[in-house]
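Bumping with the actual sequence this time:
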Amino acid sequence: MKICIISFDYWNYDHHIVSKLQEKGVDASHINMGAYRYKNFGERFRNALSKIFLNKNIKHIKRQQYVLDSLAKLGPQDKILVLNPHNLDYETIKQIKSYTPYLISYLYDNLERFPVKDRLELFDKIYSFEDKDVKKYGFEKITNYNYLSEQPLQCDTIENDLFYITSYDKRRIKLLRRLASRLSALEIKSKIIVVGKQVWKEKLRNFILKPYGHQIIEFRKKPLDVKVVLEEYKKSKVIIDLMRDGQEGLSFRIFEAMAFEKKVITDNVSIQTYDFYNSANYLIVNYDLSNIEDQFFTLSYQKISKNLYQKYSLNHWVNHVFGISSTDDCSKNIYPLNISN
């Protein structure tokens, strides 16, 4: 079987799908739009002028051509999965579809944030992690996945009570300001990192690297290497997960925390509808964050069952999305998720 994954792998998650498929003996390939780079400064400069004066993003066009050129080299595929197709125009997706009898999409952002409804008719199957989009458009519900080890990973060395890394978002910044104040009052030792091109706005406010009692909020333009982030998770008691506006689906952070057996502070109320939810492991914060207490950091994580852990594994996700049978997969036939809203 030949399967191709097409995505903009900004956080370096999508390549895990390809690796898992290859482990299963599938001829799997990954076309990463994020791999396209300007050839030189002149090309970058011309694109900047084009965006300003012609309202035309040449890089966006060339990225799509990069996808089509790469697919032409790979040839026909049994299945193609496009993750979040907002970076691809209708005609580009139509050409992609000509390479496969079965075109799939997985939406791990809501259609409010990335409105791609005009392109969805081209897909034979659409998965989404957002309940509201599933209900409105008839998609199939599926969560993100635990791409880490099949056995929980732990660390004996704890350096921080809390760690959080996130992309820049106005809503999150407002929450982080309140959160920093609350954590300082509790004398919680924290490490918080915000990544994004817009962090210069916070520099102007003298917010960068400003200490808040026992923690520091650091703003970076470029993301940390994934291995570094995972090490920070291992060395912390609690991980924070704050949503974007309109988001209800579970982020990868929830599953990374599951792998490392870490507790989570989140503002995602939908988490309590999932079968792995345990109030001892997940603290859903209220608006003023007053329910964050010392006790949550001192009590131990309560382990989930092996079957639940495997249910949210990448292995099961791949089997389900691509219809791959596995005789030794003890979590077969457990999708769609049985959750309430």
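The tokens above came from a reply further down the thread. The mean pLDDT is 84.
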